Amino acid sequence: MSEPIRVLVTGAAGQIAYSLLYSIGNGSVFGKDQPIILVLLDITPMMGVLDGVLMELQDCALPLLKDVIATDKEDVAFKDLDVAILVGSMPRRDGMERKDLLKANVKIFKCQGAALEKYAKKSVKVIVVGNPANTNCLTAAKSAPSIPKENFSCLTRLDHNRAKAQIALKLGVTSDDVKNVIIWGNHSSTQYPDVSHAKVKLQGKEVGVYDALKDDSWLKGEFITTVQQRGAAVIKARKLSSAMSAAKAICDHVRDIWFGTPEGEFVSMGIISDGNSYGVPDDLLYSFPVTIKVKYFGDYFPCSFTKLDIFLDSRSFKFKY
Ligand code: NAX
Predict the structure, then answer these.
(1) Please, what are the domains in the chain?
(2) For this UniProt entry, which segments traverse the membrane (predicted)?
(3) Which of 160, 187, 197, 253 is catalytic?
């Protein structure tokens, strides 16, 4: 067994974390032989609830969990981190304007970025989930200047998975038969789900999604709006926002960062643009198609990424870890 890695989940008393923590603890994200010290951060008024989550994690008796630390203190939470999954953020409340929400979250993510800068390992991989995810991620990255900006990404994998699932449902296949959809832009209703490079496996053969479906008007119309508005549809039905599917998407995203993307596949992630790809301006946090290759040091440490390529670009555009 390798040395334990230290993984932080913020917003740990919330509903996404409740679905996420078990998958992290049971080895579904970092592998079945990777011990973990799981750190749970939430705000002080949630410490009672977080105690309950801690007890449940203990009661799961998960052999990979070497320790679970529940805290409301950033110096404890961000210390020596290998991975930080930033789920907690200020939700939009009734009567709250967008600018007030942004202001509240800028404050949170500036503080958490500064804590990453001060306490975490410089190799820490930071995944931002809390909304507005793109803005929060950029804020955290800017507040942690000594951590490579390529180590920061935000979650658009839920939108990516939603797009895959819609195509699979339409074709009567399972979603693992669909690959290489792209979510461009923001994790918001302005995102652009794009299947022009997507492939589907039909009777053992890979076919372009447009050719397989032969329904361009659906792909250019209802498909796009369904994916863009899926989050709102879930809230309307469930009276709560997506949690189980968000947790699954976080697992997919982090697993790909840790182990690399499968050969011949790319996934969607919000990352900081360097201005050289697809005409997206420099320094904008934007969802792109990415491939990730991971370099292993020795037998046990899947710790450093050699590169994160932006797919579909013939120029030698590379994010270097
Ligand atoms: P919950 O309200 O259930 O949980 C959020 C938790 O974060 C609460 O326990 C709260 O006390 C905690 N929190 C607030 N401020 C904090 C801080 N400064 N430090 C640590 N913890 C803090 O929300 P949940 O449903 O779990 O959603 C969490 C976030 O994910 C929301 O911002 C939500 O909008 C966002 N989402 C993002 C998605 C994405 O694809 N990027 C999809 C799912 C989800 O909507």
Answers:
(1) 5-154 (3.40.50.720), 156-310 (3.90.110.10)
(2) none
(3) 187
